[in-house]
Amino acid sequence: MPSAVRFGVNYTPSEGWFHHWLDFDLGSVRADLDSIAALGLDHIRVFPLWPYFQPNRTLIRPRAVEQLVALADAAAERGLDVNVDGLQGHLSSFDFLPAWTRTWHRRNLFTDPDVLDGQENLLRTLAAALADRPNFIGMTLGNEVNQFSSGPHPDPDRATSDEIDTWLTRMLAACEEGAPGRLHLHAEYDATWYQDDQPFTPGQAARHGAVTAVHSWVFNGTAQRHGRTSVPAEHHAAYLVELSKAWADDPHRPVWLQEVGAPAPLVPAEHAAAFTEATVANALDCPGLWGITWWCSHDVSRDLADFPELEYGLGLLTNDRKPKDMARVLERAAREPSQPAPARTTALVVPADPAVRSLCAPGGPVFDAWFRLVADGARPTTVLDVLAADQEHLAARGITEVVTPDQVLPHPPGGTRS
Length: 418
Description:
Blueprint: E1 6-10, H1 26-37, E2 43-46, H2 50-53, H3 62-77, E3 81-85, E4 90-91, E5 94-95, H4 113-130, E6 136-143, H5 161-178, E7 185-187, H6 191-194, H7 202-207, E8 212-216, H8 222-226, H9 231-234, H10 236-244, E9 255-260, H11 272-284, E10 289-294, H12 325-335, E11 346-350, H13 365-375, E12 380-384, H14 391-396, E13 401-403
Parallel strand pairs: 1-2, 1-10, 2-3, 3-6, 6-7, 8-9, 9-10, 11-12, 11-13
Antiparallel strand pairs: 4-5
Helix pairs in contact: 1-3, 3-4, 4-5, 10-11, 11-12
């Protein structure tokens, strides 16, 4: 029987990248989906570009919505479930924001009443269009929308954490209204967990929506500091999964590793399969893992200009739909049966205050202590400092030992695999 953990891929069309919505070719999409389904994966994450679907605040293009539904139906024919990102947003270094939010119409994405009305309407509309499709998993609000809310974005839409909380509540409610009972969530890049002034907080990530989503990229300083075969690089995805659990109110809240990839040149192409194998194996050792969704399905065509170099080669499949070695790694993992991972009984204390979350970032004492524990053979999770003595909370999570970073032996973190 297949693994209980879901295995999927973020769908990047082989022809036209996400601009394929402008020249939608269902035949090309079907060929892409055939190549994905052949790997034994069970779901895709789909990215409708916001300006193409809602070019005016009061115009959601019916043809675009029909094309999204057609894509979902084509996926169903191939045994693939579909998660849809709504407010798209930001992808591979490019921002896709409608003109009615920029320049002469500059309005804050998270606080302006008119913008919120438009966003809510789009999310509700997309969710409702797919609500009766059995293979529709649910909506993700958007891809790493927190990157719009703070630096290093060159023109951020500033908001307070309270305003973000209100935004998340309202947008998730719109998804639920459109498609009741589906798995609706939000997803941010790792500044949520690592950046002190980021208004999207760990608590929001772990408490809003049906599951917690984490996006793991080792180009955030992890691979630069420690190398591609280090314990921190190969366990970074597992670290984010376990770090997120510290803030969850539900001790059994599932976590979705919604983005993870092998970025060159930090992970050269000839080593991508080994990195993939280690990353997947270590993530599968995390209890409560909902799924692993690799970034991405197909390479970006070299005919398209101005992408960061690493973006062109991230696909499991080449631009002509041929699987790479790392695709075979994911295929084996998806087809092999697995047992639920046992509880992680050792918990590392992390600060509850989001103003000092950089302690958990690469180079921080929490980060270093967690990987020292791993290097010593432990299987750590995390617990908030304000809950570290709460025996009921610890028992609910199966935690029997609590350690602080300064109690972990101060030998250098990392080391290569044997």
